[in-house]
From TrEMBL, chains A, B:
One of its GO terms (molecular function) is thiamine-phosphate kinase activity. It comes from Halarchaeum rubridurum. Mg(2+) 5 binds at residue 191. The lineage of its organism: Archaea, Methanobacteriati, Methanobacteriota, Stenosarchaea group, Halobacteria. Keywords: ATP-binding, Kinase, Magnesium, Metal-binding, Nucleotide-binding, Thiamine biosynthesis, Transferase. This is Thiamine-monophosphate kinase. Pathway: Cofactor biosynthesis; thiamine diphosphate biosynthesis; thiamine diphosphate from thiamine phosphate: step 1/1. Mg(2+) 1 binds at residues 32, 107. Mg(2+) 4 binds at residues 20, 30, 60. It holds the Pfam family AIRS.
Length: 286, 286
């Protein structure tokens, strides 16, 4: 079965599944696995891998509106080269420090393929889930979309240092905490804006009308099909949230990152410029 | 560098590293990665894999003396077969239920090798670390050692159902919580009693004199070299702890599992029946 059907099966078996992170009392917890063939293009440094892997888990915590407290990781590799391992750990430490969390260690695993598992924790008494959106609200995103697509282009062009920089995103932890009091539903854009909208639509039983011209596209993303790549490429780790239109100004004022309304919450259907927007997710290198 | 040196490097970089689980406020958190070639012999069902992987993380929580609250996992496999995935999730749910924790979901990853990552969380205001042992105390273990070695023998003998049963151990969560008020240092025996003793000795700056005849050996472990296999095979997930001799009776009375004093805490050196006990860890199939 495909991954979506498989996630549905897990959701049938596990009551608590189905959001960016699981909630246990006032703690949110998430776990992710990334590996070389699909997540770390040739040229990705281990420092970037550590930053990005732990960052992806911190982004899930942010998407719940929780304050990230800490993270742990497993470094799985065929051999433990001191420079590589130190790079990974320093990347993990630095991304945590960047968002006020603590990297508290983890484990090692001898593994044929370079494979990383990461967990992040956060605290909140009022997590923001995916199911609270209402027709009549607006939908907005933090930052700009397409940064990881631009990174892939840079890897392809042999601009390895620049590509690594683009890959080391800032998890929107401060933004998530700040948006908690305004957002009715929230998730991150790790599978792309298009899929995020479909997931929010399904969880909240609503629809979306998004205006293409309003979608903030990462400046470094060049070439043809920028809007399509920015909306479907994914791996961007921005926050996508719904909120009442009259809360946008206050939300924006409290944020230290760009926050852009891209459309309206409707009764049903996910549309971009009036056309049905396919539920097309994260597709590498397309 | 070998795994031990690599762990030392991580410990130099991450202040909080070096125990069975990391502590973040009143929460303990651990992450583990297991995979087919080294952790799941042919014949291991996905139900057993889910139970065992999540159980290994719950065991780390138990080793801190914390009450396990929940767990999450990533199921990484080349394809998502419904029966396999459901088996894994049911194993994860059941082992959590067994110890009063909640399995709250996780993620999927398309991965060439069947690979699982698991995180467990627990709560305690007074975690038991590895560094509190003092010369003059005694060292004791829960349950009996060698169960996983017996499981491997059963897999080798083609007794698959029995092997799976032996592989589905009970994480010592209740015992860990109960021992918290008596134990000066504690860890689990996942790398074998010998290595556990060396790790406790190093962390606490003490030594151990263990009496071979006192070591409880799992009844189903048969054949030559039972004591050596029970002490070095590992993967048993029993608790190894130190405590004052006069606290043993109270500790035992409060436990619902066997609890056996196997030796004394000394000033230095790790000895079995008077001979130096090599720091030999988990070695499969030996």
């Amino acid at each position: 079965m495909d991954e979506r059907a498989a996630l549905g099966l897990v959701g049938d078996l596990v009551d608590a599944a189905g959001d960016d992170a699981a909630v246990l009392g006032g703690t949110v917890v998430t776990i992710d696995m990334l590996h070389e063939t699909t997540d770390f293009p040739a040229g990705t440094t281990r420092y970037t891998a550590g930053w990005r892997a732990v960052g992806a888990s911190l982004s899930d915590v942010a998407a719940m509106g929780a304050a990230a407290t800490g993270a742990v990781g497993v470094y799985g590799a065929p051999s433990f080269e001191p420079d590589d391992l130190e790079g990974f750990v320093r990347g993990a430490l630095d991304v945590c420090e960047h968002v006020g969390a603590e990297y508290v260690g983890g484990d090692l695993d001898g593994h044929d393929e370079f494979t990383v598992a990461t967990t992040a924790l956060g605290e909140t008494d009022a997590p923001v889930s995916r199911d609270g959106a209402s027709a009549g609200e607006v939908v907005a995103v933090t930052g700009a979309l397409g940064r990881s697509a631009a990174a892939l282009d840079a890897f392809d062009a042999g601009e390895t240092e620049r590509a690594n920089e683009l890959f080391r995103f800032t998890p929107r932890v401060r933004a998530g905490v700040s948006l908690r009091e305004h957002a009715s539903a929230m998730m991150d854009s790790s599978d792309g804006l298009a899929r995020s909208l479909h997931q929010l639509a399904e969880a909240s039983d609503v629809g979306f009308d998004v205006e293409g011209a309003a979608v903030p596209i990462y400046d470094a993303l060049r070439g043809k099909g920028r809007l399509a790549r920015a909306t479907t490429f994914g791996e961007d780790f921005e926050l996508v949230c719904t909120l009442p239109a009259d809360a946008v100004a206050a939300a924006k004022a409290a944020l230290d990152v760009p926050f852009t309304v891209v459309g309206d919450v409707t009764e049903s259907g996910v549309r971009l410029d009036g056309e049905a927007l396919a539920d097309r997710g994260y597709t590498h290198g397309e």
